Structures are given as structure tokens and as C-alpha cells.
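Hi R.,

Quick one: here's the NUDIX domain-containing protein sequence you asked about.
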Amino acid sequence: MPDRVAAMRAAIAEEPEPLVTVTHLLRLCRDEHPVLWERVSDPDCRARVTVVLTELAEVLPARPGERELPRAARHALAAALEPVDDVPAVVVAHALAELVDSTYGHTFAGSFRRRSPYQPGVGDPVPLDSPDLRQVTAMAATSPPWRLANRLDETRRVRLAGEWATRFQVVFDYSATELLAGLVTAGTVVATCHPNRSLDDFEFTRDARRRTFPVRPADPDAQLAEIDRLVARAAASGASIVVLPELCVTERLSARLRDWVRRPEGPRLLIAGSHHHEDEAGDDSPRRRNTAVGWVRGSDLPLLQDKHSPADRPVAEDIQPQGWPEIRVHVTADGWHLVIAICRDLLNPQAVHALTEAGVNLVLVPAMSETLVPFGGPVAQLVGSCQALVVVANNPAEWADTGDLVAHRPARALFGHPGFGQQTRFVHAGDPEPGVALMTVSSGRLRWLTVHNDEPSIRVGRPSSKPEWVEQLETDLIRRQMVEHRLPEQVVLRPAAVLVLVTDGSIGPRVLLTERTPDLAHYPGQLVFPGGAVEPGDDGPVAAALREAGEETGLDPDAVEVLGVLPPFALPDSGFLVSPVLAWSARSAFTGSANLAEVSTVREVPLRELLDVPRRTPGDCGALGRMTATVVDLLSGMLARTTG
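And here's the predicted structure, written out as C-alpha cells:
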């Protein structure tokens, strides 16, 4: 132990990051917890701690808002751990960890964000952000406003990961932290939407083993119209968070529902239920998945979560989870830890323990279950331990088979709230009609609104109808974003973007290309997508691509609908990291002229011609740039998969 304490003192003396210093101290507290428990209240130990804290107050912090430990503070912390009489170092270490937490806790979120997406191992720090519920709800919480146990491996804002970190791939994701800020306030209304009356509304595909895949709406167009009605009613009732049930959409429907968060009157966060789909696994064999998709206002990237606990009733769900089950925690700037869980995943006791240990306090659950009673225990545990808000959206309204004499009508929704006397409340409806359940966060008030078919369906999106191949491209982009993440905040190459604009032609898709003037330094005379460097005033690659396309070709950005962003390409020769922005236009509109200093001609070229090598000659199409050709091949492959 003397050698270990000496090594820790040396590390602390050289460590400028407060979060790492707290981690060093808490690891000692965890390993020496029997000694700490025994001596923490000893009068000699408390006297020594008082002296240490008094001395440190003179050098910690050096300046208000300090984000790094100054050299004087680091050496003072190390010196405080020097052996004194028989006072164990672990007692002082515990006091130092709490002191650094209280003084430098404002830096921890930035430290975790720099590591995002962050997957802790055993003994690594875990963020414990605790929103002040008194600012959110007028109800008296049924549990203390902080955690129930006084643990010795945690401070107010940090906890060390335990063995649960080996059972689940827990990832703390800060990619949408600013977009999700202010999502939960005293005025927040959360809604669950329930579009289906019975199992007859679904199509169940069973194989010879009676395994079922996929489960999907029997009439997707009617289902979308019903969901649009429900989301419109929820939004009109003030809901800023909307949760749809499990398997109530297809891939294409979930992609189309993204348009709701683009509307000013729509919700800020929409969990578009979940859907069955097949992906190609690493060995080229198909993998069946059940994936929930969440859309956030201001982002084209979805929040994604795969299901890991297949259903066994009323059908045997034939999905094939691979690898460690993942729990992705989306952290907001104001301290909420958001997790999407799919139905039975919330019934796994080990998963609930991991959620509790990770400090998760906002859980949104698409479900498809003949009863919500088993969900009551896990939801109550999360509410009591983490002061969590939990929302479970169930579907359909009736589960009775035609030969059943007993009509099974489960609860339509389940809400967990720290102000509820029993911590959970079920929402039942008097009839099986589609409807919306609403919870007001400040008061815990619950309401049920029945939505009838005679109410108008409010469709979202642009008025121009897209060809089927465009919608299939949009769906494929969602799949790709399951493994693609945002660009890192710091890159060696300069960020740039190009606009890959597709339109519909007589012989299939066409793409917009520019022929660069022959006297340019980079790619002279080549056919390329319009684009350029991301400027300081651009809000990311999408804005840069639209701006550059307008400057180079005169394209009207209002005539363009962005579908998504393809993986970036590194171009070392020109020093750019280029993000291709895939977009669709029913008919390209040009409000200005081409920039003749950079562009010789502007062409809309059929994709088929670009892939037909004998036709790809300098005389008719020019020479494709290397990255442009790669994107054309990628686009062709995507279309081949979606239409094949």
C-alpha cells in the first residue's frame, strides 16, 4: 500500500485534468473500502481531514472557473496524501475526491464529451448528472432527491463503473447533447401514441419452425396516416416528446416520420417505435434485427437502439442479436441521461441494474406486450433509485384471439414519475380506438385522448411526391447511420462537403455534376459534384454543400430536400475531409448563373451513363473525378440493394 499511495501521489502531481485526479482517488477508496468504513468517523482522522482541507482552500482553485488543476494545486493534493501518524491515506483520499468534485465539477461534462462516444471499463469514471427535480416538478418526490446509498466509490458527479460494465456495452454519447438541452422542463408534456386496435392490423410472417419475422403493419399507407393523426394530436396538445410502440412502423415509415421534428409545431424528440429489418453481417449472412429509431430536432442523424431480448409470446420473434448488448446513454447539456429500451429489454434485471448504475434518468420504451404488469417493478426501481422519468408505449389495444372467451385489453401506456405515490401509473382506455396518452411532467397529470378516423390526417414533408427509389435511398441511409457517427470535433484534414443531388429522369436517376475549368489547381477539367470547404459560418456539412452548390451552379436550395450524409472521404492531395451530402429534388431550380471562374458547364447526367464504362468518354461526359466516381459507385450499389 505505501508503494501504491506513492505512485498515486506522483500521478496526481502531474495530472492537470480534474476528472482523472478524482478517478485516481476513487479507485483507492473502492479498493480500501473496509478501512475507509472503519476509520472515516474516527476523531483523529476527521481532525487530519480538517487540516488538509483548510490548507488546500488557499490554493484550490487558483482562479474562478479554472478548468485545469494548476501546478500548485496538483502538488498540494499530492502532499496532502503524505503519511501522517496512523491516519490511513484512503480517508484523506475520500475527502480530496469530494473536494475536487465540488470545486472542478463544472469541467467533468467537457471531459466526458471529449471522450464521446465513451465506453467505460470496470473502474473507469461514469458521469452522474442529476437534474434538480424541484425545477421540473411541483410534486414532492417519493425518494430523496439524490441517490439512496452513500457509496464510497462515487462523488456528487462521478461514479466508478462496476462489473456491470462487462455485461453490457454501455456507451455515453454526447453527440446530441446541445440539441437535447432543455428537453425536460416543468412545462414538458410527454405523449405515447397507439395506432392499432388488434393483432389483425399486423402481418406476421412465420417459417416452418413457427419463428416470426418480420412483424409489420398490414397496410403501411393506412398505418402512416393513422400515426400522422396521432402525432398531430399529441403535438397540438403540447407534447414535445412523443413515443410510438414497438413494431408499429417499417423502415420506410420510420424514415418518413423524421419530417415531424423538422416542423416548428412538431415534437422536439420522436421515438418512431421500432421495426424489423435485415442487415448484412460481417460474414455476408443476413442478420435479423429489431431497431428503434429516434429523431431529434436539428439533427439528420437518428438515435438508434437494437433489441437484444427476443419476444417469445404471442409470437416467437426471430431476431438474431450479435455481440454484447449495447446500452447507449444520450447525455443532455442539462444533466438528463436518455436511454431508449425496446420492450423485453427493460425486463432484464441485469440491464435495469446497469441503467441504475449508469445514472439513467429518462427512459423511453416502445413495447408490444399483452400485459404491462411485469414492467411495473423495473420502472419503479429506476424511478426510486435514479429519480427517473420512464415512458412505456404499448400496442395494440386488444390481444384476444377469435376463439378466446376473455378479451385481453392491456394498459395502453405505463408512466414512471418520482412524484407518483406508487412511482408508476398505468393508462387504460375504455375502447380499443387509436389514441394518445399524455403526461405533464410538472404535475404528473395523465390524460387519454381518443383519436377517431374522421379526424383529418396531417401529412408531413414536402408537397412533391418522391419516387420509390428515393425513399429507398433514404431508408438505406438510416441503416448506414447505425454504424456511422458524427465527425470528430478535431480533424487533421480541413472539413469540406459536396452536394450529391439526384433527380428523376426518363431512364432512371440523374445526378448533378459540374465540369471544372481547365486552369484550376485541383481536379482541372474533371466532372465533379459541386462543393467546397466548410466555412466558419456554415452549420456543418449540409449547410456548406448547399451554399457551395448555390455559389457554383446557381442552384436554389429551397428546391432541395436533404436525405442524409454519406461517410466522409479523405483527400490527402488537396487536404480535405469531404462529406457527400445526398439530396433529392423533383426538379432542379436555378435562380442564378454558374460561376465561370470554377465551372465550365453544369450537367444532369443519368446515373446509368456514368456506370456504363464504354460511354464514359471525355467527349460526352468528361472525366469523372476519383472521389466522384467512388460516390457514383456507392450510390449505384445502394440503389441495387434497395431495388434488387
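The first strand starts at residue 125 and ends at 127.

Cheers,
M.
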